[in-house]
Amino acid sequence: MQSVGRKGNAFFVVFDNCTASATVRDERLHNKSDFLKYTVGYILEPSIGRPMFLRTDVNYRNVTSLTIRDFIPPADDTKLLKSIFGHFIANAVSKYCKQRRISLAKLDFPLPAVDTIDPKLKPKVHVLPTYDLDESLIDDMIEILYRIARDVGLSEAQIMENIVPYGGDYFTTITERYVLCAAQR
Amino acid sequence: MAAITSLRLQRGMSFALPNANGRRAKARQVECSPNKQLNYIEATIGLFHLEIAVLVMLFRSHGGSEKDHGTIYYWIKTLQRNRNSLWDGGKQLVKDFRACYELFGQILDGYLVGFITERCGWTAGEIKPVLDKATDVEAQIATLAAELVDFGQTSQRRQQTDARDRQHENMFLFLQHGLILRNFHQAMRNGDIGRLLISFRHMTCWFQGTNQFNYSQETIHLTACLSAIWSPGFKEFMLKNCLVSISGKRDGFYALDELNEYVVREVKNMMVHNATPKTDEHLREVISLQIMFFMRLKMKMAEESDATFVFDYHHQDVDTSADVDSVAKNCLSRKVFTRTSGRDVDKKEVPDLLMNGIGELSRTTRLMEYKAKVAAMGIRGVVELQNQAEGATQHQEQEGELEEGDDGEIPIEIELLGGATEDPEESWLDE
């Protein structure tokens, strides 16, 4: 896994909490049921490598160019949605007719493909070690992020110059942001 | 022993508070050298959890009383589902995502089949003879699809105060919401980023008019990232890698966070009750790294032993026609698919999520605040807005608890039914 960082190619980190209960049949003062909180994640290495992204690839000052149009569904979507809705309606009716043995002519409502990912380009998934750390604790979250950087083999130069995308659920994401923005004075 | 001394960051707790967590994080990060700072991280939410949040929103919007025709609770009762295993009424959250999504899909299919049957000339009785004889099904489907993409229709009808038909409006909104959600789900399976973004743009607007402040803020940020913050190359990379097909199958794509749930499940399955510190460490440091290898190994063994059905059985579609038929016939008998001016049997009005969201965005205060804070403070601005959203959510939850406390029926119902269905063996939690 150390080779992922050494290659210098862009990759994706995903992690989440893994909570398991450790139940005790006969509870006593010094033997109580509890939850075991671990962190489980993986590295996604795309099949077609490209160099890691630089800090300049993320520029928060560009938000000034945003307008309300960026957030509202454009009119161009309507035509596509019509085809998509047509396909799903036809699919529902055909499925029902097939299951109820109703004779129905084949409905021609193909699902439009807009921008598909090639399934043959299978990425490599490197599962990270399961960390005995709880992402809801700030100390542990910082430790998790350090451990991932170390396990992946990120160099000091990469840490200072590049950008690594991280993914997860909402809570993981906001905790990561909270920790990393604490470094900014 | 960091885990013992460290303070816990509760879900829903505002980060803005000058608490020990904030001081601790700042102390640990500000004082460390640049090569130990974490500014290289660009954190983004996963699409699977976004889909769960959307389903929660739709359950809340189409909820209501089980006595009101067309609400989710009405269909849960009619289709004889166990409400307590699907939906947490107290917290207003989805308990079982898959079961909820399937139920939502069956209601949607029922509406679609009923609508088309009615358009094909149904007057009374069974659906089969009508569809058997129908010759213009394709034309009716095309007409219905064209009507459904007119997202301003319901809001226009709602402005006509004297000719309302809430039952029909609610059903129409259900169809629009359901089809957008289905497109999002199927686009994820098909690995189609273009179709996924079409649904995502609608969902971003939907969140703006709801009380799900966290995702309302997060979808604004994700849209901003896609439109302006990320460079074209980085955006392309993020989009092309937000879904992954491990099997190489055309319809085998998963969101990254969904794949991680698989890894979590596999790791959990390998945990044993009689673990020692040594075996636990071996599992975490050695075995769990091999999860994907084990998956490939299982597939290879199945392939070599001609037992490929082992990996195919879960792709078989179950026969949902009885449920679909029940929904369709129920609606046909009540003439829900025919707009009847002045019909007002439904008390509840389902919110027009898209129009409400666009209305909220048009006020521009939310966008202006986002732009001002993020342009000035960067990621710190995003975090500050998250804090506000967390605070608003917390406030809303407290108000909800107070309201529930006033109503004597709800806590008793939850307590009794919760106690009856809770299984101590199923106390494994995800999050």
Give an overview in words.
The complex is a heterodimer of chains A (185) and B (431). By secondary structure, chain A is an alpha+beta fold. Chain A has two domains: 2-48 and 121-181, no CATH class; 67-119, no CATH class. Chain A has five helices and five strands. Chain A has helices at 2-7, 76-99, 138-152, 156-161, 170-181, and strands at 12-22, 34-45, 53-54, 124-127, 162-168. A five-stranded mixed β-sheet of chain A has the order 3-5-1-2-4. The radius of gyration of chain A is 24 Å and the shape is extended. The mean pLDDT of chain A is 90. By secondary structure, chain B is mainly α. Chain B has a domain at 47-242 and 321-363. Chain B contains 21 helices and five strands. Chain B has helices at 2-5, 20-30, 47-61, 72-78, 83-86, 97-119, 128-133, 137-148, 153-159, 166-190, 193-208, 213-229, 232-240, 256-269, 277-287, 291-304, 321-333, 353-362, 365-377, 379-406, 409-421; strands at 41-45, 87-88, 93-94, 243-245, 253-255. In chain B, the strands form two sheets. A two-stranded antiparallel sheet of chain B has the order 2-3. A two-stranded antiparallel ribbon of chain B has the order 4-5. In chain B, a hairpin with a 4-residue loop joins strand 2 (87-88) and strand 3 (93-94). In chain B, helix 6 crosses helix 17 (321-333), helix 10 packs across helix 11 and helix 12 (213-229) runs antiparallel to helix 20 (379-406). Residues 1-18 and 404-431 of chain B have low confidence and may be disordered. Classes of the chains: A alpha+beta (185), B mainly alpha (431). At the A-B interface, strand 1, strand 2, helix 2, strand 4 and helix 3 of A face helix 1, helix 2, strand 1, helix 6 and helix 7 of B. Strand 5 (162-168) of chain A pairs parallel with strand 1 (41-45) of chain B, so a sheet runs across the interface.
